[in-house]
């Protein structure tokens, strides 16, 4: 699959290497750069959408530019990402094919990669808007302060952000400054903690850790099962060709 | 007979007393709690409305009664396990929930399903749209008091559910999509039966059009009720038939490149300028008919070939991010998948259509009469699992 | 209910009466369907569609409210937020009442067994008579659950029930 060449701040015109077509985001990107200036930290394009990372103080200004000036009328979603590695073990294979590789697999690196358009902090807020007339979408994200994540609200510009910010607040603990009513949306009132943070464990799995992916369920005791009688492909195993 | 002075005076006195009552009677606002268990909410949605007489002054939606924590659960599961789980978000059109997730995983793995699989995927996607919307069309009648359509709906849905079960094994929650293709090929005789079933669904749509849309009561109760202007709808993030009923000509199947075969089919996007409940019902009815034609076209042009690309048995998706959204029956459903290698994803954000569709409700219900609350909720058409994930 | 408390219904002469009472009770159940999630659609298919008609078993759906229902079918995932309403509505049902837990979410938490917001089974809140497994169970499975419940009702000892003793049915 071909991907659009990422834009770099020094060269607004993409070099004509593979795609002779005009980049549909060129003018929008220029307008964003003009409006946001230094606040526009990093940009890129991936599979049809433009990705933009802005400074957190310019978070709501970016929304206004996108909506009123660049006419991105449709609000898709707003959420957050917690880039810290899990505090619980990842699923892995413990029996059958693939178990040996799982044994040697190094633990996930402590250095957190931040995805497209980069990032520096643990918490990032992420939003997408789309233009129904030009059929283009923009992902906007912003680094948040890890100790007290907060961002200005988008709900004045895009009304749909109201509920999305409430959900992000209760799931991650991100404060949205200027939001009219940052009450819990999903969780009952007595709930403590921020569930989607990576240091919030799922207690059912702590009490009884998931034993891992069993590739082929063994035979019951007394039924033997050498190589020739072992089932060649467990019917429930996904990914089996044909 | 001449009216005596006595009668005239007493008449005037009665009128004056009446006027005094209307002016001086201070009514308190009443708080009406609709739900979470109520036949008119499609599931466990709670609506708290402050009423002044029969009119709603303000309304608030309390959701979360079906919040199952999907985004957290995806972080501890492998990709095939998530495919199983994700069926249950929009539980009426379950195959349609799997597709964007599988497409995102395929984008990350850089595999493409073979053309036969893409074609069958499209057919099953449209069939799940039919399974979903036929129930809506019948259920809207029940919400307004017409009980017969829902029995037709359940009866005619069974044809489609039979076919989905014949191909995938599950009436809904098929869990049939796999990274790289589908689990199995179609059984023998399925194509012919499907075409018959599509004809039956079209006759169901015609029946409902006669029954409900021609009905004077239905028209009075739905025309002009719950008008959503396009600008505001888009700002709230309404998608799917809800926004097309407000005149926005936007359909992700046509306007967004996708590996599924919608581009190769000959079909039409239906819009309606009014933006009221009648328009939303009308658009969905036409879309169901359109979907039956799309299924037939898919099956007519079904290419031969393998049903799944070569993928390893234990699926490890390379690191990266992907966003895929599709035009699900309820609206735009999208998955933002972040993978850091490994058997399961690092973060999955599920963008579900009904969450945005219902966020407009507090704004929309201001000044509306109590019976119209039910009409509006029914016409916005949400599934609780889609709102609450 | 003096006769019952004095153990009168156990007397041989009243056995046919008990039999008749149970027989008429089991074929006149009024089902309050608590449809929460996907199982509600299968329950709707069982109750409302002409294909899996439940009324032929003597079970009538759609009572006006829980206060007029004998049987409640909890179908779908029970979340912690939803648990208090379920408890309250179960308490509003008059005795003798029965509960069918439909689907694996209501049985034990189901596919969401490890979620932070799901109650792992409705039997943590209310006592359950019949568990119908499946995800979702086919409408025929729910009908079989209802038939099993009817067998149970047939063999019930009303005296024990009135006295509040735990019901043990062979």
List the helices and strands and how they pair.
The complex is a heterotrimer of chains A (242), B (389) and C (170).
Chain A (H helix, E strand, L loop, with lengths): L25 H11 L3 E7 L2 E6 L4 H11 L4 E9 L10 E3 L3 H6 L18 E9 L4 E8 L6 E3 L8 H12 L2 E3 L25 H5 L5 E2 L28
Parallel strand pairs in A: 2-6, 4-9, 7-8
Antiparallel strand pairs in A: 1-2, 3-5, 5-6
Chain B lengths: L4 H20 L5 E5 L11 E7 L2 E8 L7 H4 L5 H8 L7 H16 L5 H30 L3 H21 L8 E2 L2 E2 L7 H24 L2 H7 L7 H7 L4 H4 L7 H4 L21 H24 L19 E9 L2 E9 L7 E5 L1 H7 L1 H4 L5 H11 L3 H5 L1
Antiparallel strand pairs in B: 1-2, 2-3, 4-5, 6-7, 7-8
Helix pairs in contact in B: 3-4, 4-5, 5-6, 5-7, 5-12, 5-15, 6-7, 7-12, 12-15
Chain C lengths: L1 H4 L9 H12 L2 E7 L2 H11 L10 E3 L9 E5 L7 H10 L5 E5 L1 H5 L21 E3 L6 H16 L3 H6 L7
Parallel strand pairs in C: 1-2, 1-3, 3-4, 4-5
Helix pairs in contact in C: 2-6, 3-6
Describe the structure in your own words:
The complex is a heterotrimer of chains A (242), B (389) and C (170). With 242 residues, chain A is α/β, with parallel strands linked by helices. Chain A folds into two domains: 15-202, Beta Polymerase, domain 2; 212-242, no CATH class. Chain A is built from five helices and nine strands; from the N terminus they run αββαββαβββαβαβ. In chain A, a hairpin with a 4-residue loop joins β5 (123-131) and β6. In chain A, α1 (26-36) crosses α2. By secondary structure, chain B is α+β, with helices and mostly antiparallel strands. Chain B has a single domain, classed as Cytochrome-c3 Hydrogenase, chain B (Orthogonal Bundle). Chain B contains 16 helices and eight strands. A three-stranded antiparallel β-sheet of chain B has the order 1-2-3. The longest helix of chain B is centred in the N-terminal third of the chain and has 30 residues, at 115-144. Chain B is elongated, with a radius of gyration of 25 Å. The N and C termini of chain B lie far apart (72 Å). The mean pLDDT of chain B is 87. Chain C has 170 residues and is of the alpha/beta class. In chain C, 38% of the residues lie in helices and 14% in strands. Chain C has helices spanning 2-5, 15-26, 38-48, 83-92, 104-108, 139-154, 158-163; strands spanning 29-35, 59-61, 71-75, 98-102, 130-132. A five-stranded parallel β-sheet of chain C has the order 2-1-3-4-5. The longest helix of chain C is centred in the C-terminal third of the chain and has 16 residues, at 139-154. Chain C is globular, with a radius of gyration of 17 Å.
């Amino acid at each position: 699959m071909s991907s659009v060449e990422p834009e770099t701040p020094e060269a607004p015109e993409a070099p004509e290497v593979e795609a002779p077509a005009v980049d549909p985001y060129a003018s929008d990107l220029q307008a964003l750069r003009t409006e946001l200036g230094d606040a526009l930290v990093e940009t890129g394009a991936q599979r049809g959408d433009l990705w933009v990372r802005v400074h957190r103080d310019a978070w709501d200004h970016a929304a206004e530019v996108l909506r009123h000036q660049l006419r991105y009328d449709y609000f898709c979603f707003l959420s957050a990402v917690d880039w810290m590695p899990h505090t619980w073990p990842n699923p892995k294979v413990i029996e059958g094919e693939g178990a040996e590789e799982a044994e040697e697999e190094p633990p996930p690196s402590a250095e957190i990669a931040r995805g497209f358009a980069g990032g520096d902090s643990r918490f990032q807020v992420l939003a997408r808007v789309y233009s129904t007339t030009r059929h283009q979408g923009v992902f906007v994200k912003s680094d948040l302060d890890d100790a007290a994540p907060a961002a200005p609200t988008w709900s004045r510009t895009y009304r749909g952000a109201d509920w999305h910010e409430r959900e992000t607040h209760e799931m991650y603990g991100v404060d949205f400054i200027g939001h009219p009513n940052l009450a819990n949306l999903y969780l009952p009132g007595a709930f403590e903690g921020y569930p989607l943070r990576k240091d919030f464990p799922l207690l059912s799995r702590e009490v009884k850790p998931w034993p891992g992916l069993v590739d082929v369920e063994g035979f019951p005791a007394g039924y033997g099962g050498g190589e020739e009688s072992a089932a060649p492909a467990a019917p429930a195993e996904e990914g089996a060709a044909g | 007979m001449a009216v005596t002075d006595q009668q005239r005076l007493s008449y005037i006195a009665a009128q004056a007393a009446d006027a005094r009552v209307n002016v001086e009677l201070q009514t308190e606002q009443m708080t009406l709690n609709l739900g979470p268990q109520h036949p008119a909410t499609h599931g466990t949605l709670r609506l708290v409305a402050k009423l002044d007489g029969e009119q709603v002054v303000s309304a608030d939606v309390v959701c979360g009664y079906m919040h199952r924590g999907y985004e957290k659960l995806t972080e501890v599961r492998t990709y095939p396990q998530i495919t199983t789980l994700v069926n249950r978000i929009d539980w009426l059109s379950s195959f349609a929930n799997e597709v964007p997730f599988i497409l995102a995983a395929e984008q990350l793995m850089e595999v493409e399903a073979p053309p036969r699989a893409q074609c069958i995927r499209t057919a099953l996607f449209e069939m799940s749209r039919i399974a979903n919307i036929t129930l809506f069309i019948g259920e809207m009648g029940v919400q307004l008091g017409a009980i017969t359509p829902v029995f037709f709906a359940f009866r005619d849905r069974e044809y489609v559910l039979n076919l989905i079960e014949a191909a995938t094994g599950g009436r809904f929650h098929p869990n049939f999509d796999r990274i790289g293709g589908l689990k199995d090929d179609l059984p023998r005789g399925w194509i012919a039966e499907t075409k018959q079933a599509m004809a039956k669904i079209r006759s169901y749509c015609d029946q409902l059009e006669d029954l409900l849309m021609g009905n004077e009561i239905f028209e009075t109760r739905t025309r002009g009720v719950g008008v959503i202007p396009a600008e505001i709808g888009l700002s709230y993030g309404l998608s799917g038939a809800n926004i097309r009923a407000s005149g926005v000509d936007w359909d992700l199947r046509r306007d967004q490149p996708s590996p599924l075969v919608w581009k190769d089919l000959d079909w039409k996007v239906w819009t309606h300028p009014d933006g009221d409940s009648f328009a939303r019902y009308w658009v969905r009815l036409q879309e169901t008919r359109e979907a039956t034609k799309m299924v037939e076209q898919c099956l007519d042009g079904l290419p031969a070939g393998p049903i799944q690309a070569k993928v390893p048995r234990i699926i490890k998706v390379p690191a990266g991010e992907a966003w895929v959204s599709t035009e699900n029956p309820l609206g735009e459903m999208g998955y933002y998948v972040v993978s850091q290698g490994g058997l399961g994803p690092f973060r999955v954000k599920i963008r579900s259509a009904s969450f945005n569709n219902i966020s407009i409700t507090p704004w929309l219900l201001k000044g509306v009469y109590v019976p119209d609350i039910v009409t509006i909720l029914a016409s916005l058409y949400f599934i609780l699992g889609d709102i609450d994930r | 209910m003096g006769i019952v408390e004095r153990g009168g219904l156990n007397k041989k002469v009243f056995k046919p009466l008990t039999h008749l009472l149970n027989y008429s009770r089991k074929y006149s159940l009024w089902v309050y369907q608590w449809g929460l999630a996907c199982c509600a659609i299968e329950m709707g298919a069982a109750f409302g569609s002409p294909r899996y008609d439940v009324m032929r078993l003597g079970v009538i759906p759609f009572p006006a409210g829980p206060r007029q229902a004998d049987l409640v079918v909890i179908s779908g995932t029970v979340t912690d937020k939803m648990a208090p309403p379920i408890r309250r509505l179960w308490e509003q049902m008059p005795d003798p009442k029965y509960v069918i837990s439909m689907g694996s979410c209501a049985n034990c938490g189901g596919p969401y067994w490890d979620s932070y917001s799901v109650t792992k089974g409705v039997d943590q809140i209310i006592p359950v008579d019949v568990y119908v497994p499946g995800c979702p169970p086919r409408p025929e499975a729910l009908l079989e659950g209802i038939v099993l419940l009817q067998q149970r009702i047939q063999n019930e000892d009303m005296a024990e029930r009135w006295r509040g003793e735990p019901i043990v049915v062979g």
